[in-house]
Amino acid sequence: MKLLDMTVLRNAYGRQIASDVVSGPTKLKKEPLEMVFIRGPIIERAGPGVEVLAEYAGKPALVQRDQIMAATFHPELTDDTTVHEHFLSLVGAGTNQASGCSKT
Fold it and tell me: Which of 27, 25, 40 is nearest to 77 (CA)?
Protein backbone atom coordinates (compact mmCIF):
# COMPACT_ATOMS: atom_id res chain seq x y z
CA MET A 1 0.00 0.00 0.00
CA LYS A 2 1.33 3.48 -0.82
CA LEU A 3 0.70 6.34 1.60
CA LEU A 4 2.33 9.75 1.44
CA ASP A 5 5.11 8.41 -0.80
CA MET A 6 5.95 5.80 1.84
CA THR A 7 6.02 2.08 1.37
CA VAL A 8 3.96 0.61 4.19
CA LEU A 9 4.19 -3.12 4.88
CA ARG A 10 1.81 -5.09 7.06
CA ASN A 11 1.20 -8.77 7.60
CA ALA A 12 -1.97 -9.56 5.64
CA TYR A 13 -3.06 -12.09 8.26
CA GLY A 14 -3.17 -9.52 11.05
CA ARG A 15 -0.36 -11.00 13.10
CA GLN A 16 1.46 -8.74 15.46
CA ILE A 17 4.60 -7.32 13.91
CA ALA A 18 5.81 -5.01 16.66
CA SER A 19 3.51 -5.13 19.70
CA ASP A 20 5.40 -3.46 22.50
CA VAL A 21 5.85 -0.27 24.49
CA VAL A 22 9.15 1.44 23.67
CA SER A 23 10.82 4.83 23.77
CA GLY A 24 12.57 6.27 20.77
CA PRO A 25 14.11 9.45 19.39
CA THR A 26 11.87 12.18 18.04
CA LYS A 27 12.26 15.59 16.44
CA LEU A 28 9.31 16.87 18.50
CA LYS A 29 11.20 17.08 21.82
CA LYS A 30 14.58 16.40 23.42
CA GLU A 31 13.42 13.43 25.49
CA PRO A 32 12.55 10.07 23.90
CA LEU A 33 8.95 9.59 22.82
CA GLU A 34 6.97 6.73 24.37
CA MET A 35 5.36 4.62 21.64
CA VAL A 36 2.77 1.86 22.05
CA PHE A 37 2.76 -0.57 19.12
CA ILE A 38 -0.19 -2.91 18.61
CA ARG A 39 0.11 -4.86 15.38
CA GLY A 40 1.93 -1.88 13.97
CA PRO A 41 2.74 -1.64 10.29
CA ILE A 42 6.32 -0.99 9.21
CA ILE A 43 7.25 2.05 7.14
CA GLU A 44 10.20 0.83 5.08
CA ARG A 45 11.15 4.22 3.68
CA ALA A 46 9.90 7.78 3.49
CA GLY A 47 9.73 9.41 0.07
CA PRO A 48 10.62 12.96 -0.96
CA GLY A 49 8.88 15.62 1.08
CA VAL A 50 8.08 13.25 3.96
CA GLU A 51 9.68 14.22 7.27
CA VAL A 52 10.44 11.46 9.77
CA LEU A 53 9.44 12.80 13.19
CA ALA A 54 10.15 9.64 15.23
CA GLU A 55 11.88 6.31 14.70
CA TYR A 56 11.82 2.85 16.19
CA ALA A 57 14.37 0.13 15.40
CA GLY A 58 15.86 2.28 12.65
CA LYS A 59 12.53 2.65 10.82
CA PRO A 60 10.19 5.66 10.60
CA ALA A 61 7.41 5.44 13.21
CA LEU A 62 5.89 8.94 12.93
CA VAL A 63 5.97 10.86 9.66
CA GLN A 64 4.57 14.08 8.27
CA ARG A 65 4.09 15.63 4.87
CA ASP A 66 2.65 19.12 4.89
CA GLN A 67 -0.32 18.91 7.27
CA ILE A 68 -0.76 15.12 7.10
CA MET A 69 0.69 12.83 9.76
CA ALA A 70 0.92 9.05 9.92
CA ALA A 71 2.00 6.92 12.89
CA THR A 72 2.69 3.22 13.21
CA PHE A 73 2.01 3.40 16.96
CA HIS A 74 -0.85 4.57 19.19
CA PRO A 75 0.02 7.97 20.74
CA GLU A 76 -3.36 8.03 22.49
CA LEU A 77 -2.33 5.12 24.74
CA THR A 78 0.33 7.05 26.69
CA ASP A 79 0.27 10.02 29.03
CA ASP A 80 2.68 11.83 26.69
CA THR A 81 0.79 14.55 24.78
CA THR A 82 3.65 15.49 22.45
CA VAL A 83 2.12 13.99 19.28
CA HIS A 84 -1.32 15.40 20.11
CA GLU A 85 0.11 18.88 20.69
CA HIS A 86 1.96 18.73 17.37
CA PHE A 87 -1.22 17.58 15.61
CA LEU A 88 -3.21 20.45 17.16
CA SER A 89 -0.56 22.92 16.00
CA LEU A 90 -1.06 21.62 12.43
CA VAL A 91 -4.83 21.99 12.77
CA GLY A 92 -4.38 25.52 14.12
CA ALA A 93 -2.07 26.45 11.26
CA GLY A 94 -4.61 25.14 8.76
CA THR A 95 -7.45 27.02 10.45
CA ASN A 96 -5.44 30.23 10.41
CA GLN A 97 -4.66 29.77 6.72
CA ALA A 98 -8.30 29.08 5.89
CA SER A 99 -9.57 32.12 7.82
CA GLY A 100 -7.00 34.29 6.05
CA CYS A 101 -8.42 33.47 2.62
CA SER A 102 -10.20 36.31 0.93
CA LYS A 103 -13.65 35.69 -0.48
CA THR A 104 -14.47 36.97 -3.93
Answer: 40
Tell the CATH superfamily of the 2-98 domain.
Class I glutamine amidotransferase (GATase) domain (3.40.50.880)
Ranges of each domain in the chain = 2-98
Q: Quick one: 78 exposed, middle or buried, by C-beta within 10 A (0-12, 13-18, 19+)?
A: middle
pLDDT tens sequence across 39-69:
878 888 888 889 999 999 888 999 999 888 9
pTM: 0.76
Closest Cα partner for 64 from 74, 49, 81?
49
